[in-house]
Amino acid sequence: MLEERLRETGQDHIARLLEHSAGFISSQMLRDDLAQVDLSLVMRLIKGDLLYKEPQKRSVEPAQVIPASFADTQEAAQYRDHGEGLIRQGSVAALIVAGGQGSRLGIEAPKGVVGVGPLSAKSLFCIHSQKVLALCRKYRTTIPVFIMTSRANDVQTKAYFSANDYFGLDKNEVHFFTQGMLPSVTPEGRFLISREGSLFMNPDGHGGTLTALSKNGCFDIMRDRNIEEIFYFQVDNPLVKICDPIFVGLHSLSRAEMSSKVVRKRSYDEKVGVIARINDKTRVVEYSDMSDDMRYATDETNEMLYWPGSIAIHMIRADFAENLTREGLMLPFHRAEKMIPTLDSNGEPVEEKGVKFETFIFDALPHAQRSITLEVLRDEEFAPVKNMTGEDSLETSRSMQSALYRCWLEKAGIIVNKDVSVEISPLFALEQTDLLSHLSDIPDRIETDIYLKGPDEQGQ
Asked: Does residue 74 belong to any structural domain of this protein?
């Protein structure tokens, strides 16, 4: 009986609410939530089992990073060709982590619907989908898209894609799956009630991607489609080069199991994780876990030693990801304290200190026998939208997008007046070299804001 199990696990207060059908709870929602909870797992987490522990650093050294300049070398051509070959034969899937809400950006909707196009106000979902569509057309192939949603935004996300006709993609090639949920608890380990009268649950983090892929049958789809590689990225970055052929080729020809893109940190104190070699394993070291000795270390030229900032873009070999879940691997959980809007024992709204547990995808890196790390330029590939204003904001992202597209035009010999905003649709050009076949469609001199769109733009 559920109430007995709750008492056995120290959740007698929840059992009492169910037994007495307290007016401020929804008994059905509460029971539905509890049915999804692995009580044994949660009890282990409360006791401190399965939590992330910093490895004893017997050796710490910089990761071997392929520099951004590599892309312009003759050697890079073979890797690009190989990557393009994998894309053409339909061996690469795109995976978008999109479980977040846009609350900090002023909307109560999935973050992916936030309008980020500098002139078009296209949404993140629209931009990413059009990049995949452009890739499919360019390489005459099909690229399946897997979108990880959360319980909070799954219905809205699916409805948004449906209302926009999947932005031109074949709806049968767009696969939605939901990430796992875990209850937040008090510091003493007691479950909390949400303001809606259900259990207060939080997503289990982007590290839950692999488990969610398995539980939702996505690995079966990938096997049936002969998918070899997964291009993983988070929804909030409109500059991501989806299925970047050089990255795909480097990862594949190096026989790597999980690989990463990085950018050079802006400063010693930029709050991003860095990729390093710890005890001969590639790891992401969280900013908060870095000692001052590591954070401020310099090389022989007095430059920052641990500069490769992680930007949550990875190549993951499909069989590696599936084998991790098949073998029952559980990535370590990270414990974070936060104030939680909840209800007290009388049903009154209060905020209470709580603990949430989540996993991070980069904790799978040490399990890879081989991994490559590729540096990319921040201005070209990383303009995340995390805040309304300030650093990594809607404003900075739009500005970076416009600056990149301006650069593309200027490299093609087009004069662009100062302060002009520029936007180029993925359906017009995926990368700068694609512009060369469209020069007749672009003025020689641009004096006002310009949006270059594809011939058959889809809804936004």
From this structure: yes
pTM here?
0.94
Whichever domain contains 322, its CATH number is 3.90.550.10
Measured CA to CA in angstroms, residue 63 lies from 45, 140, 212, 282 at distances of 31, 36, 30, 7
Helix/strand/coil for 362 = helix
> What are the phi and psi torsion angles at 409 (to 5°)?
-65, -45
Confirm whether 448 is domain-assigned.
no
Each residue's pLDDT tens digit, 60-92:
899 999 999 999 999 999 999 999 999 999 999
Contact assessment for residue 243 and residue 314, using Cβ atoms and an 8 Å cutoff: no
Q: Report the b/e string of 288-304 with b at 16+ CB within 10 A.
A: eebeeeebebeeeeeeb
Q: How many domains does the chain have?
A: 1
Q: For residue 110, give every residue at least 6 positions away whose Cβ sits within 8 Å of its Cβ, in sequence order, or none.
A: 98, 100, 101, 102, 125, 149, 153, 156, 157, 160
Q: Quick one: 269 exposed, middle or buried, by C-beta within 10 A (0-12, 13-18, 19+)?
A: exposed
